[in-house]
Write a structure and sequence with these properties.
With 134 residues, this protein is an alpha+beta fold. Helices cover 26% and strands 46% of the residues. It has a six-stranded mixed beta sheet with strand order 2-1-6-5-4-3, with helices on one face. Strand 3 and strand 4 form a beta hairpin. 16% of the residues are buried.
């Protein structure tokens, strides 16, 4: 049985792997084969996005081309049943200009993330992103 502490630890390891630049199959170890990720509309992705495992792997590779580095600063975390809820400040150094942020500049957003687990793997992730102006 996976405990609340286990789920929080897996979540923190998952975010750390992203920070370390892991992509593709290195990130796939955190996901169930049936994973679904929903990114609700935001300034960067105005129509939002729905991704399966294949899409998540591809997005991680694209992200590596756009980001020099990224950091997830967890402000608050909650575990309710099989769901980890995070309030996170995300900062990234970007490799390409985005809006008025030059290459090498910093982008910042405030995330609310809901990460649902089954058998220690992420099965569903919903993300609400609020970006600072760019």
């Amino acid at each position: 049985m996976t405990t609340e502490q286990d789920l929080l630890k897996i979540t923190k390891n998952y975010l750390k792997a992203i920070e370390e630049g892991k992509t593709g199959d290195e990130l796939a170890v955190f996901y169930s084969p049936s994973v679904e990720q929903i990114e609700y509309p935001n300034r960067l992705i105005p129509n939002g996005a729905k991704r399966n495992l294949h899409d998540l792997k591809a997005a991680s590779l694209r992200g590596k081309e756009v980001l020099i580095s990224q950091n997830y600063d967890i402000q608050k975390s909650y575990v309710i049943g099989n769901t980890v809820i995070l309030e996170t400040i995300w900062t990234a150094i970007i490799a390409v200009p985005i809006g008025n942020i030059p290459s090498g500049g910093q982008m910042k957003a405030y995330f609310a993330q809901f990460i649902e687990f089954e058998n220690g793997k992420i099965v569903r992730q919903r993300t609400y992103d609020c970006f600072e102006p760019f």
